[in-house]
Design a protein that fits this description.
Layout lengths: L1 H17 L3 H6 L3 E2 L2 E2 L7 E9 L8 H25 L2 E8 L5 E9 L8 E8 L2 E9 H11 L3
Antiparallel strand pairs: 1-2, 3-7, 4-5, 6-7
Helix pairs in contact: 1-3, 1-4
Length: 150
């Protein structure tokens, strides 16, 4: 299963960047008995995470800022993981006997690995701390190619 996941990862990254237009995605790949061949284009994925500084726990302003830095970085990785691995959405609506909506909920879940991402910028904007990440899909392809996973 792990090998099939590694074979699909570059494809998932391409689909995440190009959206639902499958024609342009599959034009870059040729599939064979040996897995996925080298695509023609390697998109660069970008994600930004945000965190409130004042809402972080901590005794000092400096400690709150450090925690906001970490929280914004984790949020940026979550955003990047959504692009690479996808996101699971579960939505529920509750209806009464007259078919009138009396409640609803939406739950999202992200799970996966992000390899090779790098922090581009980290900065404060008032009470918000932001972290920008970048992931070059060429690096992912090359990492798996070196390991012999493609």
């Amino acid at each position: 299963m792990k090998k099939s996941f590694l074979l699909i990862l570059p494809l998932a990254a391409m689909i995440a960047v190009t959206g639902c237009n499958s024609t342009s995605v599959f034009r870059n790949f040729t599939f064979g008995d040996n897995g996925v061949s080298r695509p023609n284009e390697f998109p660069v994925l970008r994600a930004t995470g945000y965190a409130s500084i004042s809402r972080q726990p901590g005794a000092t302003a400096e400690l709150k800022q450090v925690k906001a830095m970490r929280a914004s970085k984790i949020e940026a990785y979550r955003e990047l993981s959504e692009q690479v691995n996808g996101i699971y959405i579960e939505a529920n609506s509750n209806l009464n006997a007259n078919n009138v909506e009396v409640g609803s909920s939406v739950k999202s879940e992200v799970e996966g690995y992000v390899h090779g991402a790098r922090v581009i910028r980290q900065y404060a904007m008032g009470d918000i701390y932001a972290t920008e990440l970048e992931l070059d899909t060429r690096l992912i392809y090359d990492l798996y190619d070196i390991r012999g996973a493609l």
